[in-house]
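thread from #wetlab-drylab

HS: before we spend reagent money on co-crystallization trials with adenosine-5'-triphosphate, can we at least see a predicted complex? here's what I'd submit
DV: go for it
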Amino acid sequence: MEDAIIMVDHPRPSGCNALADDADRNRMLAEMAEQSTDMISRHTPEEWRFIYVSPAVTHLLGYQVEEIIGTSAYDLYHPDDVEDFKRRARSVNYNRGLYTHTYRFRCKDGHYTWLESTSRTIRDNSTGKIQEILVVSRDVTHRILAEEQLQKYREDIEHAGRLITMGELASGLAHELNQPLAAMVNFLRGVERRFAGQQDIRWEEIELPITRSINTALRAGDIIHRMMDFTRRQGPVVTTLDIAAIVEEMCEFCESTAERDNVAIKRCIASDLPAVTGDKIQLEQVLLNLLINGIEASRENAGDGPPQVAVEVAEFDQNNMVVHVKDQGKGIAAGDLERIFERFYSTKSGGLGMGLAISRSLVETLGGELWAENVTPSGACFSFTLNKAR
Ligand SMILES: Nc1ncnc2c1ncn2[C@@H]1O[C@H](COP(=O)(O)OP(=O)(O)OP(=O)(O)O)[C@@H](O)[C@H]1O
Ligand SMILES: [Mg+2]
């Protein structure tokens, strides 16, 4: 067959038989290429025009062999992927002579299919110049769709976790919302008492209660917005974050829940801490899970005085920050220090056992680690690291 796949160089034996062997081998390889369910193609180096393509192209993409020869692969890439590939083209690294990438390619009927291709350059032996590119491609649509589905499930679980966390905080937050609402009623009742029935009211006389009411309503609004943000379904957005500010906000957020359980939240946050990278909502989710666990563990503390949950933020090493959430509860049985991170492991009557599993996976996705230790005289300390922003 003319213009079939180019054979890879190998040491040639001499003599007529050797030539016959070569011809046989080439014929065999060409036949394999023709019958392969993977698509095998050869391309020009600059525009990746098809010089050869195996018949699998019809099954994979719907084109006949003849209609795709001469076409540039760039014209069939998904626009987003072609831009990405062109950007990376200079730095494409043919590791051990091979390069593998995954992208979307346009089928004859116009829809895009995911291909994974391994390409290899064929070079001129003497000059080293690329003569053509040999590519083996396979359809990985099922795999990509399965990965997307898995990612969606992961996000659904994280979202469900946030709803549960918010549920646990709900009564504390309701109490917190009740305070500004009650304060506003007081301010406005005061105005009502003083000015009811009066024809002329001077602004100076009512300015204070009115501005106070506005500020109090804004504070109540902030609490509601925070709840809405936290429970909103959204994918992660990794940005540079002020860790100290987020820890402070989360401690404040849990304050009313802690107070109801007679637990004190203590902050030990160094000043001028470097920024970290992460998704704000995910970081809040981890902190809330640990804080709520700490508060719940403290609830059972039978010691003197109000038990404390202490949150500490410090430098961990050159590249990482660390957050410790330490309580004065009973601690964790030595044999359970790893088990508590398993999904659905819970010793609480109403617990789902997902808080720590989700938190660990969130921290690890961001390149950090989350672990638990017991502390003396009593209590548990959960620590996690976060990458410093560069
Ligand atoms: N600070 C802590 N002190 C002692 N034990 C803890 C502490 N934090 C977690 N645990 C143990 O680890 C288990 C798992 O915690 P995790 O947060 O994953 O689930 P949960 O709190 O039981 O339920 P939820 O899914 O609502 O968070 C808890 O049930 C508890 O036994
Ligand atoms: Mg929990």
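DV: The chain has three domains: 16-139, 142-235, 236-390.
HS: ok that's useful, forwarding to the group
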